[in-house]
Amino acid sequence: MFVSEKNLFKRPGKKAGQRSVNKSLVLLFALLTSVFFVGGAHAEVPNATPPKGTHSGEDVPQPIDFPHDIHADINGINCMYCHTYARRSKVAGIPPTSKCMGCHSIIATDKPRIQKLTEYWENNEPPEWNKVHDVPDYVHFTHEKHLQRFVFNNEGMDVANVSEVCAFCHGEVKEMTVAEKVKPLNMGFCVRCHEQNGGPSDCWKCHK
Amino acid sequence: MSGNDINRRDFMKFMGLGGVGAATLSGCDMPTTITLEEGKEKVVAYLAPEEYAIPGIGVYFASTCQQCPSGCGVHGRIREGRLLKLEGNPKALNGRGLCQMGQASVQSHYNPDRIMQPMARKGGSLQPVSWEEAWQIMGEKVSGVDQGRSAWFTGTVSGHQSKLLDALNQAWGSKEHYVYEAVNNAVGEAVNEAVLGDAVPAYRLDKAKSILSFGADFLGTWMSPVHFSREYVKFRTGDRGVLVQVEPKMSLTGANADLWVAARPGTEGVVALGVANVLLTKHQVNGNSLTKAALDLIAEYNASKVTEISGVGGDSLVRIANYLKDNSPSLVLSGESANNHANGYQNAMAIMMLNVLLGNVGKTIEASNSMAFKDLKAKRGNSRALLDFAKAIDAGKYDVVFFMGANPVYTSPSHLGFADKLAKVPFKVALSMFLDETTLAADLVLPLSSPYEEWGTTVAPYQPKNAALSMSQPLMNPLSPETKSLGDILLSMLKHHGVAGYAGYDDYYSYLRAALAGMPASVKAGKSGDEFWSASVQRGLINAPSSPGSLKIKLGDIKQPGYQANSGFPMHLVPSTNQNMYDGRNANLSWLNEAPDQVSKVFWDSWAEVHPKTAAKLGVKEGDFVKIESDQGAIETQIYIHKGVHVDVIAVPIGRGHEEYGRYAKGVGVNPLKILSPAEDAESGELASYATRVKVTKTGHSADLSRLGGSERQVGRRLVSTVAASVFRRVEGA
Hints:
Chain A is mainly α. Chain A is built from 10 helices and 1 strand, in the order ααααααβαααα. In chain A, α5 (97-104) crosses α6 (112-122). The two termini of chain A are 30 Å apart. The longest helix of chain B is centred in the middle third of the chain and has 14 residues, at 268-281. Chain B is built from 25 helices and 28 strands. The termini of chain B are far apart. Chain B is globular, with a radius of gyration of 28 Å. By secondary structure, chain B is of the alpha/beta class. The chains are: A mainly alpha, B alpha/beta. The A-B interface holds A 53, 57-58, 60-61, 85, 88-91, 93-98, 121, 124-132, 134-136, 181, 184-189, 191-192, 195, 201 and B 19-20, 22, 25-26, 28-32, 34-49, 54-57.
């Protein structure tokens, strides 16, 4: 079984050496499983039935046309590299501007989009993105628990393929430029997936 | 549901069984336009967050609550750079607890009526101005003022802000600093100072086995209610202590008492003498601690005389005396309803006499820990400041007056004519978060940041244990960059005035850092300046070295006046305080308006409490409007009937009836403080706010009283088990 990084961080009294042993174990295991389970262009998520349902989303304009495809598909960057909060918190979080600038103070600085980003950074103001995926305020959705179930506590799952889990609710974001809503994200969509994958069915789990 | 046999319970069962199929969920696939929107909300990322900042996960920082003068330590939960919730700081005097006023202080911080930029009077009304212009106006009006022609009028202040204020006043050659609190314990403090030599000794509720409280609502509003609530728990657990409350109108503490006794307002001292009489005669308590004169006086107050004056029956006196004698050590307290009379000092002295007689001084009343830093101690507020200030401005003593943390235009009785007198002051500056009545009367308004946006230190006025300095740190960025903290404004003024020693500080933060770094090694416990600063901010508290003081016993005259009836105005007005509106500062917080009063359960309005017998005599029922008329004016409000009021009393809570103070406060309820008669406690000069006589008449209007819960009875539901008083007395042997 995989150990969530959150737990690794939080466990008190854990020595640095121990953590690295665990991490290398995780990596080794990931490597092994990827050999057995990964095949073809679309990797599968073991022990999971993806939710069904589609939605035709509106075009949501963004201050910068962020190309998810260049980052996640062409360059193969793990979703959780930028959306680092997803595994620790209820919200996935938009990456802080400092994270963007970590690479883009060097990479692709001649591109107009990056120049616009740099302008934001130099003015000390983060871009105001428009929210694409949203659930009502009376719905308590947590990314952390979903990633635990489908990725970190999911035997045979390779963390490198996390985008397949993200795609359950967000669609194939790595084929998009700016994100677009392609799943309905309504209660029927949630509940059917919970039934098929053994998720909790108590009302108060989500409506608290 | 006509023609269908399914009732609610069956429906729930059916849903439970059928819940597995998608059929029952078909409704859940309906898109709703409001809730599943795209691109309507903004989501803004951090620019360069701290390591610990994770969106969706709260972090906690320590600070200090300023919603009342108690100075409780708090932990604020911050998420995505926003303050969401406050809890008590476990290391502070209040422990993990925080009262509802403290909880609601979040609403004060986010209040839509906050002043977000400086304002100056131009052509009769307040207009927004820049800080630059505000400072320029200050320079013109304040700089040329002669020595001693300026004054500060504030609420309770302490810590380094108080120190800066003193330095500023000194530079201006003016010692005039009026510290005013409408809700105070000043008469009690005066008696403590005279008898014990310690104005605010430590009341050890936890050590007492019986408490006799004359109107001290220590669970609600008295001194440090959250701390006392924790001590009260210790008092009640284990060998359960007995609480007796004597007051004209049942307070939150009174509602928790084992025995609640209604005495005629102003005769609490007589009741105390009556209890002492029983203790000396029936229980043969040693009277050596009292003088011959005092003993002779007590001997005069036999049961029949006490009953005649106070209306408290002889059997009640015996029961109170029995409780005190059988449950030793005891503690006797005097609070607002006993202190704030024309004979308040005498009341409090007679009540203190009981402590001396019962040997409580040194046992349940201990010396406070005096703070090593005298210049940081809290300046406690009283109401004499209001009377003195009114006289001074009437005589044209000041050219410039600064207001901060007090709203005297609202809380002053109309007989003072405060607003008219204030108009005589040529230039008035208000440092305020809200446009309350006093701020609106000012010529220049400087917007204060909220207590959760600023740096500061607070010393709680009540320091029973280790003296502590409580830290305030910004829990979030200011909502408006134009607001400034009191410390920053004072520092700017000191620098502007060229006072030596302040030029080196860029802001109040750097001043505080230097002040803490300069504290003696005994406080810093071997830490370097930076380490000490981090530790202080993290803990939220600095435990200052304190020396346990000592108490003397020098009882004053306990002579009591007789009771004066007043046929024109036969009833007593009790302007009661509750842990909700407090002195009116909380009227702009909708949570507290929505929270029902602890005793009457009324919300969003004022009401007048009367005894059922009085209601019958007046011919009124609940919800009827009555006119309450004193020699100074009249107010009209609705009647609430219950037995926790003396028959000669009509109790109207203070705090509502604002003419200004934002959208939630303005025009809601009535303000009983406006109709107070001019009366002062002769000894201490405090405003006798409980000494007003009124006549009550029916107006003929009636309306539903906005009140939580429709019934005073359990209607046979046995929600709370009860036992008849007669059975209880037989079993418990009281």
